[in-house]
């Protein structure tokens, strides 16, 4: 069992640049992929999505590539930056003269020009970095999957506790339901006798009515199906496959069985136990939203 929440990271180094690939995933009913990186490398979007789909089936996955030059403090780059800032100031001065606007350069203006230039980093051609990006993305995917598995183990422990509680409630329901029809028949006959009404329990019509009630109030089928669904939940706790949707369906079916069981029984004890079960089911349903 794996969670849909996770994070992975891998750093890479190129001749003139350093960068980092970050992967993050959150809950999503299906699969959604978001790519963020240099526009020159958008050819990697499709390939990275294919790499991720091979390992992950559900969740909203965001891949972010951040790159910067590792030559920022070299004299060559400083000289180039000086020329570009000077040219920007000249262009701005010429524009102000044409528009008859006073030109007063300031430290703040120069800082803004430098900031805009620093973000305009020339990146290597995609064909030269595709192999590095592929290897580092695979490394980040492994980190992401490891975190999802660790959180999935914590979710599995919580699931186990709630399954155990549902099994306890189911056993209590089974015990409470034994002999309900017989007990109800005896109480009904006793009340009729106390009211002065004579009832022949061997009469076919009376026996038929008793049988109808016994059938309507019998919850043995619901108990059997509940046990089967709980076994299905149990069997999926330690799997590495995507089981989130399957668990959601099983929890939904369990809810239906407990609702049916509660409506069929006239015992307050049974109704209270069914409510307890539905409370536990709701907690499991919330956890299923975060399982791949």
Structure characteristics:
3 domains, Ribosomal Protein S5, domain 2, alpha+beta, 9 helices
Can you lay out the helices and strands and say which pair or pack?
Elements: E1 6-13, E2 17-26, E3 31-36, H1 44-53, E4 59-69, H2 75-98, H3 107-118, H4 126-177, H5 180-194, H6 204-217, H7 220-235, H8 244-264, H9 268-288
Parallel strand pairs: 3-4
Antiparallel strand pairs: 1-2, 2-4
For the residues shown, what is the average pLDDT? 83
Q: Oligomeric state of the chains?
A: single chain
Quantity of strands, as a count: 4
User: Mind describing the biggest β-sheet?
Assistant: 4 strands, mixed
Reading the helices and strands in chain order gives EEEHEHHHHHHHH
Strand residues, percent:
5-15%
Low-confidence stretches: none
What is the end-to-end distance?
Answer: 7 Å
Helical coverage, percent range: 55-70%
Strand order across the largest sheet: 1-2-4-3
The value of Rg in angstroms is 34 Å
The number of distinct structural domains comes to: 3
